[in-house]
Amino acid sequence: MNELLKNLRLPWLLLLLVLQAWPSLGAAAPRQVVVVLSDASAPYQEAARTIREGLEGESAKLAIRVVVVGGAGADEAMAQPDSLLVPLGAKAAQLAAKSNQPIFAALVARQSFEKLFPSTRHSISAIYLDQPISRHLQLVRVAQPRARSVGVVLGPTQSVSQAELANAASSAGLRLSAVALSGDGDLFSSLQTLLPNVDALLLFPDPLVVNRSSLQNLMLTTYRQRVPVVGYSQNLVDAGALVAVYSTPQQIGQQVAESIQRMLSARHWELPPPAYPKYFTIKTNSSVARSLDIEVPSEAVLAQRMGAGAGL
Amino acid sequence: MKNWGIQARMTLLALGPATLIACLLAIYFTFSRIGDAEQALRDLGMATAQHLATSAEYGVVSGNKVILQNIVNGTLKKGQARFALVVDAQGNQLAQSGSTPQELEAGLRIQPPRANERDYVFVVPVQLGKVELQDPFALEDTNAQADRPLGWAVVAMSHASLVENKKRMLLAGLGIALGGLVITILIAFSLGRGFSRPVRKLSQVVEELGRGNLSARVAPNSGGELLLLQKGFNRMAETLQANQTDLQRRIQEATVDLEAKKDEAEQANRDKSNFLAAVSHDLRQPMHAIGLFSATLKQRVSTNEQAELVQRIEDSVNALQIMFDELLNISRLDSGTLEPRLEACDLAAILKQAGQTFQPLAEQKNLRLRVRACPARVTCDAMLLSRIINNLTANAIRYTGHGGVLIGCRRRQGCWVIQVWDTGIGIAEEHLPHIFEEYYQIGNAARNRAQGIGLGLAIVQRIARLLGYPLEVRSRPGRGTVFSITLPAASDASFERRTSVERVPGQFNGERVLVIDDDFAALESTVALLASWGLTPISAESGEQALDCLQNETAPSLIVCDYRLPHSSGIDVVRMLREHLEMQIPAMLISGDTGAEAVAAMQASGLPVLYKPVRPAKLRALITSLLR
Question: What is the DSSP-derived secondary structure letter of residue B59?
Answer without folding.
Answer: H
